[in-house]
Amino acid sequence: MTQNATICVGTLGQGIWRSSDGGDTWLRVRHGLYSESAVRALAVHPSDARIMYCGADSGVYRSEDSGEHWERLDSPMNEIPIWALAIDPVDPNIIFAGTRPAALFRSTDGGQHWDKLSVQIAEECPNVGIPRVTALVVDPVDHQHIWAGLEVDGVRHSKDGGKTWEVVTSGVTDPDIHNLAITVGPPKTLLTITPREIFSSTDNGATWEPVQVRSQVSIPYCRGVLVKADDPQVIYLGNGESAFGGLGALHRSRDRGQTWETLPLPLAPNGTIWNLATHAADPALPTPIFCWPVASTVRSSAAPMRAIPGASLPGNLARCTPSSGCRTSAWPQCSRENTPPPPAPAQLRPKAVTIRAVRRDSRPYRCGTRPPNG
Prior knowledge:
Layout: E1 7-10, E2 16-19, E3 27-28, E4 39-44, E5 52-56, E6 59-63, E7 71-73, E8 82-87, E9 95-99, E10 104-107, E11 115-116, E12 132-138, E13 146-151, E14 154-158, E15 166-167, E16 179-183, E17 189-194, E18 197-201, E19 209-210, E20 221-227, E21 235-240, E22 248-253, E23 261-262, E24 273-277, E25 289-293, E26 298-300, E27 306-307, E28 317-321, E29 325-329, H1 345-348
Antiparallel strand pairs: 1-2, 2-3, 4-5, 5-6, 6-7, 8-9, 9-10, 10-11, 12-13, 13-14, 14-15, 16-17, 17-18, 18-19, 20-21, 21-22, 22-23, 24-25, 25-26, 28-29
């Protein structure tokens, strides 16, 4: 039943909020993680949902009780903001992490030890100044293939489990990578999400084609993406007016991202939908879909979506379950009338750090240019 689902929501400046009753009640996590942490990445073990990993502004953390208690894993990322995590679906002891400044790390023993990977990454880039890793995906068909998306420095691809990497130099014409997704199909399809276009590949990244998403969605700015756990033909897309603020929207594709439709929501999200999540480890759950912008959360099960009370975040959250029907209600501590607006973008930037991700030969290059060979 969805009311027994555990939901963990990472926030910028309020740590992790956790609900153990499908979104009815929420508590801020206070065991092992600073309550004011900026948490940009959460990853769940593919077969044991009790095991979770968290990427924060103070390193990587592990939980073995569905997010109630956390332990920091000593790593080279102890003082680096982590923006992306991915777990190998075949060997869950293999974990990848991406950071800002952009760098890639890998653990082969469940996070106990980490190695920095040798990847060509720019030191500077347009718009955001310092590149960051915004997406990491392990191919569910062939786990030796790893994909990384960088904002703003394009796509990286490894064919040998992360030992070596190459720059995707053709087909994806926008280096501002917001997200990546792979669906097993058939056919297997790779999707690269950029601000106003989605690029699709059915030949393992050899060629890419734009799907002309701007003409199909209600709001063109694309951010979050999710392949439905029990139906790989279905993909969800989170959109908005800009990186922060404005309105958000949720879209669905039934053909692996080639065409899109706008999904009705009980109220307009008060920001771009950055994240979507689900988990198929528990067959008793009707595969609920969770989505949230910077400042609110929405959940869907087999029944229509509704807004649920949110984890002390501005705005409302909604819930719908097949057994109890749907309702919309305000979070009791934090109604829309007495809640401060979301933090301004300047307040959401991670703290400054002094490290840089550089090429093997230490010669920097600028984003938007093809790196030299070697």
